[in-house]
Amino acid sequence: KLAGCTLFITGASRGIGKAIALKAAKDGANIVIAAKTAEPHPTLPGTIYTAAEEIEAAGGKALPCVVNVREEQQIINAVEKAVKTFGGIDILVNNASAISLTGTLETATKKVNLMMDVNVRGTYLTSKACLPHLRKSKNPHILNLSPPMNLNPMWFKNHCAYTISKYGMSMCVLGMAEEFRGEVAVNALWPKTAIHTAAMDMLGGAGIEKQCRKTDILADAAYCILTKPKTFTGNFIIDEVLLREEGVKDFDIYAIAPGHPLMPDFFLDVEIDKEKKLSRSQQEGADGAKVKTESAAAEPSGPVAETFRVIQGAMTEEYVRSTQGVFQFELSGDGGGTWYIDLKTKGGSAGFGKPPVTADVVMSMSSADFVKMFTGKLKPTLAFMSGKLRIKGNMSLAIKLEKMLSQLNSKL
């Protein structure tokens, strides 16, 4: 279906962008690899040239172009080169993106600039440069890798700058779909679950891949969108939802570890609601569970109690002086109940029950996830984003605790 079509894909040297490129290449498409990695990166796989080799091997034609989407002239040069080489542009995929999951006070200005420049400005300027050529195509599409806009404050409070930048990409879809209705289709695609990429490895650390799907699911969903007529426009599409509508039934083929629980992606509330209902039903499910919690109050034991014993033993005046916060944990499941870490009172303390003074931060989660979080198997940021951890109170103190955790992990 995409034979002879020219796709201009930003960030196509690796990850999701490359997966979409390879899927189109199997049809015999022309792919413009607009990415900035020309020399091998010390930690990230692939360059525009290695991606070009894979695209050619898959049956497509490749044009590698060094493009940093922060540089308008580099975008314009690549677009001109694409048109000169392939005669036009039929599809633009705005995939290049920058991420920093940090709070307002923790986000350096250069990181804010990077996310706004790459995600919003880069998407806008690349679309602007390609649109005159897209309008000449028989079935032109712009596809942004951006989420449906969800104004639930929880998606803003922990990483305001990142959310604004991703929603900026989505607002380009809203505006341009209407502006170019009847001429160019403009849609957004977003994954239902976390996707295993180099970025996810950096965010989640070792073992995170088991909770992710392969990039193939987004490539298949993108293919469905890009082969639809240009009247299909202004949509915010979730990969799994679309593929189910297209008749896909087996989603294990997309899993890194089939059968392993998957982590929901950012900006999608539905999975968070399910997590809440599930934890509520686990707490309310049987009187026996309540009895277990009450008996635990008398003599706490098990992994949670052991974790708190280690935390108590690792307390230092330095931790107390640098943190100055009191943390209360409401844990469900085995060894659950109320626990605390006091890093404000002289000497510090940790243990079962309510803290000696009012808590600055209250964290709610399952006992099992708590143990994983304190032993380095579950990153607090990802626990929060996936709904496994709920936080009330001072978020900057919660971030301080995360820093302390990274120092404690070796002892735990």
Task: Explain the layout of strands and helices.
Blueprint: E1 6-10, H1 15-25, E2 30-35, H2 48-58, E3 61-66, H3 72-86, E4 91-94, H4 109-134, E5 141-145, H5 154-157, H6 160-179, E6 185-190, H7 198-204, H8 216-226, E7 236-238, H9 239-245, H10 269-284, H11 287-298, H12 303-314, H13 317-323, E8 325-332, E9 337-343, E10 349-352, E11 361-366, H14 367-374, H15 380-385, E12 390-393, H16 395-408
Parallel strand pairs: 1-2, 1-4, 2-3, 4-5, 5-6, 6-7, 8-11
Antiparallel strand pairs: 8-9, 9-10, 11-12
Helix pairs in contact: 1-2, 1-8, 3-4, 4-6, 8-9
Task: Offer a quick outline of the entry.
This protein is of the alpha/beta class. The chain is 45% helix and 16% strand. The protein is elongated and about 70 Å long.
Strand content: 15-25%
| SSE order, one letter for each helix or strand | EHEHEHEHEHHEHHEHHHHHEEEEHHEH
What is the name of the CATH superfamily of the largest domain? NAD(P)-binding Rossmann-like Domain
Number of domains: 2
Strand order of the largest sheet: 3-2-1-4-5-6-7
State the separation between the terminal residues, measured CA to CA: 54 Å
* SS field, number of helical segments: 16
Major sheet summary line = 7 strands, parallel
CATH class of the largest domain: Alpha Beta
Portion of residues in helices? 40-55%
CATH topology of the largest domain: Rossmann fold
Mean pLDDT: 86
CATH architecture classification name of the largest domain: 3-Layer(aba) Sandwich
Poorly predicted regions are 271-299
Counting DSSP E segments of at least 2 residues, the number of strands comes to: 12
